[in-house]
Amino acid sequence: MSTTENASGAESSAITAGLHPSSGESVAPAPRRGVGWALLASELSVLFRRRRTIALLAALAAIPILIAVAIRLSSSTRAGRGPAFLDQITQNGLFVGVAALVVAIPLFLPLTIGVVAGDTIAGEASHGTLRYLLMAPAGRARLLLVKFAGAAAFCVAAALTVVVAGTLIGALLFPVGPVPLLSGDTVSVGEALLRFLAIAAFVAISMLGMSAIGLFFSTLTSVPVGAMATTIAFAVASQILDALPQVAWLHPWLFSHQWLGFADLLRQPISWQTFGDNAVLQAGYVVVFGALALARFLTKDVLS
Amino acid sequence: MSAPERTAPSAEPTSALAIETRGLTKRFGSQTAVAGIDLAVPRGSVFGFLGPNGSGKTTSIRMLMGLVAPSSGEAQVLGSDISTGVGDVLPRVGALVEGPAFLPFLSGAANLNRFDAADRWAPSATRRRRIADALDAVGLGAAASKKVHAYSLGMKQRLGLAGALLMPRELLVLDEPTNGLDPQGTREVRSLIRSFADGGTTVFVSSHLLAEIEQVCSHAAVLSAGALVAQGRLEELAGEARVRVVTPDAAAASTVLTQLGLAVQTTPADAAAPVATDAGPVVLASVGESGVDLDRVVDRLVGAGVRVRGFALEQPSLEDRFVALTGAGFDVDH
Ligand SMILES: Nc1ncnc2c1ncn2[C@@H]1O[C@H](COP(=O)(O)OP(=O)(O)OP(=O)(O)O)[C@@H](O)[C@H]1O
Ligand SMILES: [Mg+2]
């Protein structure tokens, strides 16, 4: 976290006191810098209070709601058609969240992640606020870290939104009971909900690599839409490559390779193998693209 | 630390200069935006940084604030070298660069809160009060909770100034602070600058509107096409007093004035001065150290048969000097 040298105690005494024109007494200058969590708090509060973020999350929440309502209204659901888990919904409403994730992961979820991650630095640059944050001074590495943390928080919020909204609407429209797993075993509602939370965590982690890619593109431009579009295009390209058997050697290295690999969490006994593999893969992307973003951002001329 | 005095005594020996640059240069591709400037901004001064559009003022300030890396040259801000990072001096610097900038969907106070939160030296305990004080100082107290997209140009400019005042500062760097302000606002900014200077803060203020800062500056530097063409105390810069004679007998007048010891400006040194008026040609001569009795100048001219249609003793304004130094042309140099 510590990015700049700590100021010596001597410097604080050099700060001119009592300049505040409107206040009679002087505002004592900080003797030394604080830890700096305030920037993260401010970033998160701005991100999640922003209307665009709320709209993105609302759109994600609409996916399970649409699915549930559509299935509820149609008289019969033929088994084996449509995305996984869809046909199980009429028996158990708790499946709505997982079914909605399967629907959202290929395009809709990456779309929202791309918007948030692509906006991180480029959005500040386009508003001109980047120069004021840097002159505050936020510290370039610290600002980048906080921006990534914000994007990561959005990944968690996005995955949770789909699962929570799906579970709620499912419970509202369909019967709820013990959940049959892919291995044939049945678990209690409580345990099923815990497993859904684990799936939400899996999906949130799945999106971290893409967030790092978005962060990197965001340091390259002051046009946020450009960074967003490039990031989303990367996600689509990665999935297309993943579907081409000709480049099978590449598949394990694609950041989207295990996006839908959470089925292991619905088996008895639960297998964390894919969860771990995916986490390592995503961490690799975060390290590589984080380093690229840092290298770029530390030397970037801020001209916006 | 408690008494609101001027600069508190510092443990380390601090340079007498708040900003010092040597050969500071910035090139954008083939274009040189700032061409090796040597600035010396004394501590406690109000330093006017003047130059026409595109002369490199903002680019220079960006380099000083660590936003842009110089192509060559070096600079110190409050004794700290910008190449090793200005991170530890920036908390003591309040800045307004290339106009204010905010997230339009946040209120004025929320925007200031964000900038203040980014500063690790800014104590969070006093944040609310400092923001309220800064907003009051620029007359925005009533609009604090209004979204910035609903602010007028001048209100945004004021909010930008408030951002520079969030913490006690040793140095204020203000790039065109009066841009978009109404006359009251402009006057308030001037009095704000004065009050900060009185408190011991160094104020570095860039502008192309001389009249606006002439009254508050103690020092100035003039930039033209990226090069520093003049720098110094304001009195030194404005130039010496001169006489202006309107006469059809320009040649004879020049001879007389030269005999009197005045330096006739054959080609008007400043392009702003008209070489002729409706009343006839104009002869300009600087008084300098001639020690001439100005009351006798007209006498002597008339005595020599020069038809004097107009006579004036004038102190060239900084504006004349500015135009003389940077050229009267309207076109941006590059
Ligand atoms: N990002 C950039 N890329 C290329 N050239 C640039 C860039 N930014 C500025 N310049 C050039 O650098 C020169 C100086 O620009 P600068 O913004 O410093 O001028 P200024 O003195 O602040 O002008 P103004 O009074 O209009 O604000 C200009 O010629 C401009 O075209
Ligand atoms: Mg400028």
What is the CATH C-level name of the largest domain in chain B?
Alpha Beta
Order of helices and strands of chain A: HHHHHHHEEHHHH
The small-molecule ligands in this entry are: adenosine-5'-triphosphate, magnesium ion
The geometry of chain A reads as globular
- The percentage helix of chain B is 25-40%
Distance between the termini of chain A: 26 Å
Percentage of residues in DSSP E strands of chain B: 25-35%
Number of strands of chain A: 2
Oligomer: heterodimer
Low-confidence stretches of chain A: 1-30
Per DSSP E runs of 2 or more residues, the count of β-strands of chain B stands at: 16
**Tell me about the biggest sheet of chain A?**
2 strands, antiparallel
CATH fold category name of the largest domain in chain B: Rossmann fold
Short description:
The complex is a heterodimer of chains A (304) and B (334). Chain A is an all-alpha fold and 304 residues long.
Describe the structure.
The complex is a heterodimer of chains A (304) and B (334). Chain A has 304 residues and is mainly α. Chain A is built from 11 helices and 2 strands; from the N terminus they run H-H-H-H-H-H-H-E-E-H-H-H-H. A two-stranded antiparallel ribbon of chain A has the order 1-2. In chain A, helix 3 packs parallel to helix 7 (140-173) and helix 9 packs parallel to helix 11 (273-299). Mean pLDDT of chain A is 87; it is low at 1-30. With 334 residues, chain B is of the alpha+beta class. Chain B has 2 domains: 17-232, P-loop containing nucleotide triphosphate hydrolases (Rossmann fold, 3-Layer(aba) Sandwich); 240-315, Alpha-Beta Plaits, CATH 3.30.70.100. Chain B is 28% helix and 25% strand. Chain B is built from 10 helices and 16 strands. Chain B has helices at residues 57-64, 108-118, 127-137, 153-164, 183-198, 210-214, 234-238, 250-259, 297-303, 318-326, and strands at residues 17-28, 31-37, 40-42, 46-50, 72-77, 80-81, 93-96, 171-175, 202-207, 219-224, 227-233, 242-246, 263-264, 276-277, 280-286, 310-314. In chain B, strands 7-8-9-4-10-11 form a 6-stranded mixed beta sheet, sandwiched between helices. In chain B, strands 1, 2, 3, 5 and 6 form a 5-stranded antiparallel beta sheet that branches. In chain B, strand 8, helix 5 and strand 9 (202-207) form a beta-alpha-beta unit. In chain B, 45% of the residues are buried. Chains A and B meet through helix 1, helix 2 and helix 6 of A and helix 2, helix 3 and helix 5 of B. The complex binds adenosine-5'-triphosphate and magnesium ion. Magnesium ion (MG) binds at residues 57-58, 98, 175 of chain B.
